[in-house]
Design brief:
It comes from Streptomyces olivaceiscleroticus. Pfam families: TetR_C_11, TetR_N. This is TetR/AcrR family transcriptional regulator. By secondary structure, this protein is mostly helical. It has helices spanning about 30-45, 55-60, 65-70, 75-85, 100-115, 120-125, 130-160, 170-185, 190-205. About 60% of the residues lie in helices and about 0% in strands. The termini are far apart. It has 2 domains: about 10-85, Orthogonal Bundle (Tetracycline Repressor, domain 2); about 90-205, Orthogonal Bundle (Tetracycline Repressor, domain 2).
Length: about 220
Amino acid sequence: MSSRRTPKTDAGTSGGADRPAARGGRPKDPELDGRVLDAAAELLAELGYQELTIEKVAARAGVTRKTVYHRWANKSALVGELLIRNAEVDHIPDLGDTRSEMRELFAQIVRDVDASRGRLLSSLWATIGDPAVLHRFRTEVLGPRRQYARAAVQRGVARGDLPADIDVDLLIDMWSGTVMFRTEVRADALLASQAEAMVDLALAGCVPRLPRPGADS
């Protein structure tokens, strides 16, 4: 996750930060972008998505509204950028042991759900209503996470520990849905023994299977 940055005086007051957006996107100034995103993160935690405004973010970051709007077209784009920046996307290392790798996969799912709790979770649901934000979140966060998860499951298949016809995407969705429903909807703790039980079921072959050719026709 991105580290916090120390705010500095807005270069835009002399015209530099308020220059027109470069072709194909906002002006490239990672330090200034980080200051705005850090300010948005602070205000999101304090106020929630509904009360967050571009004006408040600009004031907290010490920049002009024009500076923010040159980088993000609206609030959902700004918060979407924040969610993408703060999302963790980690590969699952080849540990030579399917059980260990499935434990790591499940632990990452739990971590990702935990990271989206409270105001951040409500912000996610608000921002994914924006097709552009949803596309970026799918492409830059969900896509890579799913790619790494698939690779770990396929290693288990290659070792003979998981069925060859396992529906990898549905298994990941089932695990993700179980974790989110238990922790977010029921507000109940997911015990380590319960996580282990989910892994045990998978290794016992209790997994969704790909449909046979023509089965869904």
